[in-house]
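FAQ: What does the model actually see?

It sees only this:
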Amino acid sequence: MTRTGRVERVTKETKVLVEIDLDGTGRGEIGTGVGFFDHMLNQIARHGGFDLTVRTEGDLEIDAHHTMEDTALALGEAFAIALGDKAGIRRYGDAVVPMDEVLVQAAVDLSGRPYVVHDEPMDLAPYIGPVYPTSMTRHIFESFGQTARITLHVSVLRAARPGTRPDAHHVVEGQFKALARALRTAVEIDPRSAGAVPSTKGVL
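And it is asked to produce this:
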């Protein structure tokens, strides 16, 4: 069984190509023009165990919003294609991931129902690197969840040592790593399922 997805998304603002293999080795070939975002997508590939190719050309002369939004939308769509009818998968996945002083929890349900809950500190630095606004993390997850058609909860449980400001890099990277590990579990084939769709409805 091959579980792969490929999406090309072209608008007046961006041109995006995403290819994903859910049963890969964690190889990422990522290029969006937004360095920190590339780093985060590589976390999805490596810690999700996915082979992931992303090539995005966006209107970075305006800002990075359209580039990251459209990439996340295309990634979610490719992920949904790769899942197919979801027969035999575990469906649910969760992870608690530490990154130095930061602790993040992510839980996913490959339910077919897009719903995203996201909690992170309000006092993060506004940017990581020159062009990644920390306010975009929530929107990236919402865009991915919408087209992947999944329920996703991501919560930063601990962000900093007492009396110190959160390290935005660690806070955001911890979230992407936790998401990747939760997705990795959710897409796994459950040997006890006998190939059934994991729902009493018979469809997801």
